[in-house]
## 1
Amino acid sequence: MKLKTSLLCMGAGALFSLSIPMNAEAHAVLTGGTDLKGYDATIITDAQGTTILSTKKGTYELQSNSTIYSSKDIKITLNNSQPITINGIQAAKDLEFRGAGELDVTTTSDVAINVGNHLKAFKYSGNGKVVGTANGTGVKVHNEIQMKDGTVEGYGNNFGVYSDNDIKPYYGAVLKGTSENGIGIYAYRDIYAWKGATVVGKGKISGARSIIAHIQAEDAGSSITGISTNINSHLSALHADKQMLRAYSGAAVNEVYENSGLVITDNPFVINQAYKTVGRNMSNIENYVWSSNPKAVAIENGGLVVNTSFKDGQITAVRQNAALKKGNEVTQLKKDGRHTVTFSGASTELFTTLLVKHWVDLEDDLGYRLYTEEEIQVEVGDLVNVNMLQFDFTEEEMELDSSDSQDFVAVKSKEPKVINFYYTGEL
């Protein structure tokens, strides 16, 4: 409420009144003890930089310890010009967001944004951003998540984003869920991305998981990406329990195994058999096009091999049509749908053989004769110090006469590289 105080002023013989506006009271800080009861709420940033939430029943200040609670369906319009951080949102029924502002909900409690029914984030208008960060689950929704624009992000130790029903983003919507130790995005039913929407889940157990239905991206520009930080998890980066992973009409489903620790040796590596996480959505590696950075991978004898230029880097497998070279595939692709599997932090352990021969001349006119030989395995790319390969004649009177090799970098070879040492003296 504003009051006006009037002053009588004299000037040039004239008498006039000057009105000065004054703030008579500050708004109460909104807490979880206040039920907004479903009245439409608008959040703004006032001229003093304070964030204000208003309904037709009241006006409140939002601070970092504020909680928005409504026992009925509620619509919140984010018209704030500056990002605002609060402590929680508890919506007993539907929660709808509109507007273009940014709202961060950060709490040390189990759930940051808890929705009793549907979450309708920028479904009807607006392209704002809502972020929930909590100890357990960032964003928890007991029915559907519906989006047509804007961004929703959830961060939690167990789940980033959790839905007891479907997840349905369309068009420009972006949904992200991250869990340090759990599942990035969890849905009991479908996880969709339609008409250009983006879904990204990241977690130690799985990037994204559907219990009874699809993980499905459809229409050009749509993508669902699951990032796993543990390739040895019991769940895949994108894990549909009913094995319904799909990409249709130019959309993409992407699996990323981050810091995979993938090690490729000399033997052809059948990666989908070595890791159950990979094999769940990839039946045969020959149905995929493999590439790497640096460029070094190929398929030989049914397995993955790399040439000696690859030491550490990223390996990617892509399949983009329904035609298969071998067998069947679980992941369903139609009309240029694409399935990509990426392994970062890949490395090699490639070895080559050195055959080291030691020849001795005992000065008996018989010349050099072979004293001993040994095979040594060295890793490709390592610098071989030839002098370190000399035979130890400490207890004999033998001296190195010569060697036919100098220090070199080990390269892969089908035949052992022979190194000869020649010694003279007495045994």
## 2
Amino acid sequence: MAEDLALRQGGQPRLVHITAAGALHVDNAHRLPKFLVALLRTRPVAAVRLDLRGVGRVDDVGVAAIVLCGREAARRGIAFAIDGCSRAVAAAIRDYGAGHLLPARPRRGMALRRPHTGIACRAETRPPRGGPRPRGDRPPWTDAGQWPCRWR
């Protein structure tokens, strides 16, 4: 075994964090549900969060162990959620059909920018603000069908 699975428990008395590090594969996947069941038997727990950020590799048996942990927690009426994981682990969990256990993906929208509404007028092309206009001259903003302002 090149990579072994390390499991750690932390958190508050009723909210338990389980941190997994290493590889979660066929040789060691059985340890994760056993760890969770032993934890649930020894103390009252309201919620379990499984942190998979340290897991670099997972196979189908490892994903099945994660799903089994979620089912065992649901059978006992305990909230179960995956706190975080790498993209490869998340893809394997989604391919297995257990994407509901994953944290919600952040929405990546377009960057906010200033709205481009209205028009921009240059000072020399603006019509005068009141007062009489000369009758013989045409204002500069009416020359050759040009608009006095441009759209932004």
## 3
Amino acid sequence: MLLACAMGARCEVYRPQGVSDMPREFPVEEDLLLVVDSDDAVVQIARLSGDSRHATALASRHVRQQGLIEGDASVIGHATLRRGGEYDLLFTAYPTARWKALQAWASSQAHAVAVVPVLALLWNSLRPGAGVIYRSGARFTFLANVRGAPVHFHTQAFSEEVSDLVATAGILADGIRAQLSAVPEATAGAGIPLESLGWVCRLATAQSSLDIDPEVIARVEAQLQLKVDRLPHEPLRGASQGRMLGLAYLAQGFHPRLAVCAPSERAALVARQHLKLAGWAASGVAALAVLGAAGFWASSLSLRATAGRTADEAARIEALIRQRAAAEVMPTQFDETRALVERLGSFADSPDLTQILGALRAAGGSGVKVLRVYTVLPEKGATSRSAPAPAAAATGAARAGASGRRIQIDATVDAASERSESDALSDFVALLRKQGFALVEAEGQSRGNLASGRTVFSYELKTMRNESPEQGAR
């Protein structure tokens, strides 16, 4: 899988013959792992309350309220840590317009494009007690796992000149010490609560690993009184000789679950990974079969014939696997099995619309006005007629459970209520939870803005089966 890094309007593509500087949207000629490492991203650890299933929506509201990103924000969560009735969320936020454009470009390519935030790869590389410093140009990012708690700090140097990087290394070390000392999981008076601290650069100018940022690393080690280990970097060839790639080490830990994409695209990535592993296994079997055939031939004529048949069978299996990998086919009956699992899951979560209408009426005092109640076919993405009447809704709910449909609503905050959208929506969610229902954000039929300036929100309604309504309300 080809490796590339998207940085704002440009993209670095890493090939065996060197690094290519490309536009962010370029024609993809093979499967691609695209790491997103842009300066306009916002990385934070936010303390949130409520249901962690709504963590990204709450973090998006936090980003808007703090003015961290102009306009709408798309939030990608990386790690959560429960703290009593609250929880910490480590997330990356991107401007929605740019993020959706990147996703649309990736989905339109003929080959698979796995889009992964760089922070997802950094967090995935850390075990408890480990930390890493990632340098991308003049930007430093520190991330650590302290007994499951994420710790983050970042700073920016004036330029990539060694003197500027060394000066900023002092600020980096002070910030790391301050963030680590504020973590409740750290033992008071025990010093830096890390067993190891790694150093990795996206792309460094160096002839060997020992030549990577020696003065900068020495400054960090001196201030933290902690050894910093350079992580493996891959030397580049061709026109890029004399540069070393650390992003390749992080990419080794890639798993399809880290990719930000639709479930169907993630399933395709998983299938490709399994086919690749199967190909490696078949190559090993073929090699062992050939060695065995040579040994049998030397020992006896009869065993030589058996070894020949074994080698032929291994070659046939290897050829079949190469044919399947070249065609990039999915396993037999993969689509039917996935559709059955999705339908059964949707059937189990589909509530009764008559109960939903009663719950929506009970939540009417929140100031949220429900515009539409309808069902959605997840397999085809098509929606049924809206259900304005309770009798028709009950009939539709019965059909929905049988066919795997999902129940959705489009709603807005009533301008006459004179309430803010965030307050009204919070009360609306709490009142529905008391009735035994949970809300999940979804793409709706009426999503957008009304003439009054109010936003139209779309939610999927699910029954809270694993806890009582009163427990869910707390």
## 4
Amino acid sequence: MGKTFFAYGLLFVTYNRHVFIKGDWEKLSANPIEFDYSTFFEQTRGMLDDITIIKYYETNPLGKHTGNYIYLLLLSYP
């Protein structure tokens, strides 16, 4: 029950994030049958760049970087 609620909560917040940001409560969708699942696939593809950067620095701790972590954070922000 707890895992199902967590998964539903994660899907709910992910799908409705633009509704929360804009405050457009009329477009809020709480029914998982109504979710457009292509949205999740698009967001996953966008996150692959971030995961690649994180994996690179985990496997190459002495890898070259500029030292400008703020710039790296801005690049990884969607």
